[in-house]
């Protein structure tokens, strides 16, 4: 009985630890999935002004209404309604949205490959 009580306490402690660190775990998963650095991605999002068109959790002043809100973008099936949501497609979309959908209103911002990978890293942390 003592052993099962101890096991229950350890399980509860592990669950509490996981839930406290869920944001950190999401960042780690996003980094492994995309190869990007979510911290650098967050800075790049601010630098490119993505928040002028999108609402983006965790980005100060990202309250734009021209584009869709990006909360939960990592869990969506499609990007821009035209391509499967994969890390490679996300990076491609961030760099060259007009090449994916010539009618999109999303502008070509001259996002570098490294910045696109890091931005994808941040966006994939938004579940």
Write up this protein.
The chain has 127 residues and is mostly helical. It has one domain (23-123): Orthogonal Bundle (Cytochrome Bc1 Complex, Chain D, domain 2), CATH 1.10.760. It is 53% helix and 3% strand. The protein has helices at residues 2-20, 22-34, 38-48, 87-95, 97-100, 113-123, and strands spanning 78-79, 83-84. The protein has a two-stranded antiparallel sheet with strand order 1-2. Helix 3 (38-48) packs across helix 6 (113-123) and helix 4 packs across helix 6. The longest helix has 19 residues, at 2-20. The termini are far apart.
Poorly predicted runs of 5 or more residues:
1-16
Number of strands: 2
Q: Architecture in CATH? A: Orthogonal Bundle
CATH topology description: Cytochrome Bc1 Complex, Chain D, domain 2
Structural class: mainly alpha
| Spatial order of strands in the largest sheet | 1-2
Tell me the number of structural domains: 1
Sequence of secondary-structure elements = HHHEEHHH
Keywords:
127 residues; 2 strands; Cytochrome Bc1 Complex, Chain D, domain 2; two-stranded antiparallel sheet; mainly alpha; 6 helices; 3% strand; globular
Task: Give the topology.
Layout: H1 2-20, H2 22-34, H3 38-48, E1 78-79, E2 83-84, H4 87-95, H5 97-100, H6 113-123
Antiparallel strand pairs: 1-2
Helix pairs in contact: 2-6, 3-6, 4-6
What would a concise description of this structure say?
The chain has 127 residues and is mostly helical. The chain has six helices and two strands, in the order H-H-H-E-E-H-H-H.
